[in-house]
Amino acid sequence: MKLLVVEDDPDLRRQLVTSLSGRGYTVEETGDGEEALYLGREFPYDLAIVDLGLPSLSGVDVIRRWRAEDKEFPILILTARGDWQDKVEGLEAGADDYLVKPFHMEELAARINALLRRAAGHAKPKLSFGPLTIDTVGRVVHRNGEVVSLTSFEYRTFEYLVLNAGKTISKTELTEHLYHQDYDRDSNVLEVFVRRLRQKLDPDQDLQPITTVRGLGYRFDLPVDSDSK
Amino acid sequence: MKLLVVEDDPDLRRQLVTSLSGRGYTVEETGDGEEALYLGREFPYDLAIVDLGLPSLSGVDVIRRWRAEDKEFPILILTARGDWQDKVEGLEAGADDYLVKPFHMEELAARINALLRRAAGHAKPKLSFGPLTIDTVGRVVHRNGEVVSLTSFEYRTFEYLVLNAGKTISKTELTEHLYHQDYDRDSNVLEVFVRRLRQKLDPDQDLQPITTVRGLGYRFDLPVDSDSK
DNA sequence: TGGGCCTTTCAGCTTTATCTCAGCCTGAGT
DNA sequence: ACTCAGGCTGAGATAAAGCTGAAAGGCCCA
Fold first, then answer.
1. What is the nearest nucleotide to B216, using C1' and CA?
2. Does residue B118 lie within 7 Å of nucleic acid chain D, judged by its CB?
3. Which one of A36, A130, A158, A217 has the fewest CB atoms closer than 10 angstroms to its CB?
4. What is Dmax (Cα atoms) for chain B?
5. Domains located in chain B, CATH noted
6. CB B112 within 8 A of CB B3
7. pLDDT-derived band at B118, boundaries 50, 70, 90
8. B164 touches strand D (CB under 7 A)
């Protein structure tokens, strides 16, 4: 699950990012309206959290323009205590929910959950590939209906591969995504995780969901069942 | 895909090169403005990453002069956190996007992708030729819907030929592109790879996608389907 | 403080992509 | 038709890339 945090106050932003990534979300951040616009336009977020009180391009404008371009991800807006007018404006512009500062992280988390769950109805947070199913909201993987118990790391590795199904993902890209930092070439953690994933997802080795492309990376290759229900 | 990295800080430069080449790009690098100018002028890069804070010839000047000479490759500039103004100047000089240091490699990669995609013809970076399809982002080739399993080298060879479809590419050019440095002319590796490519792409020999031009090189010849949708 | 699980490291092993080589084929120029 | 440089082909060597099992290191929670 990939979130975008748009907040100009560096402290609050850091706090948001820390808390949310601690809860297992992949979080990207910006403090700039223009950049937010760009990011939301180019990348597939599952949800955006937008502070309305941005300098330069205002949060409301950002939202309006995303919506004008048919970006459908849920948007949660943050407003300062007094400014309820902003809130109305924001909702009219296309936001889905709001939260007044200051707030508890718990509450934010709860609303994010609710929004994602609701969005799940429209979108398709559950993907299936033959006997495999991944629920990106619940962060659960099923195999023939049974839960496959994955560790956090295994799950995130798998999720990234699945979300990029059909593409070859280099190990560098994968590790950078998982760790958000440089890739230590002399480690083979990834290989170990891929191995464990393969064992857990496909103990009988009949599906071979993850292909190794020597010299390039890994690729998740099963066809997506279009059971958008 | 060939990128040029222009960055004077040795650490950051190494990091960039490592990460990007790890992601499968062919990367060349320099820390010097003059040299950057020369390289960009002489070689056909698909994209350049330029740090604006260069010593001697400044990044902005390099860009300006490239653009004055009608070099069209996308340019992404890097600026230090504070230097807002530089960014504007850089964009005016002809850069296409910017990123403020420090940044995550993942974000850089995402922007590079977006720029390359945009440059490629606005649509998806997927090209097809009759039964053949190449996805330059996912680094996958399909033939009648089935994945053609190419090795890293085979893929890069094919990609280069495809991106230069219609042009005859000399073996020297190909090898120089594929290997960052000079290459032993007495080897016939290329021929070997071209052979394997032909076998894999066209086992029945009915398409003949790669033509040999005796004494000159190779040419990829299938008409590009304009499936820009 | 101790136990359990998750993550990372390590060393040895297997696989295979790349490159070399030697001989064969082909076609342009005589 | 003959020549010969340029290109093609198949088989094999080799070293890099990836895999594996076990064990060490961390972290969290009781």
1. D6
2. no
3. A130
4. 59
5. 2-119 (3.40.50.2300), 126-228 (1.10.10.10)
6. yes
7. confident
8. no
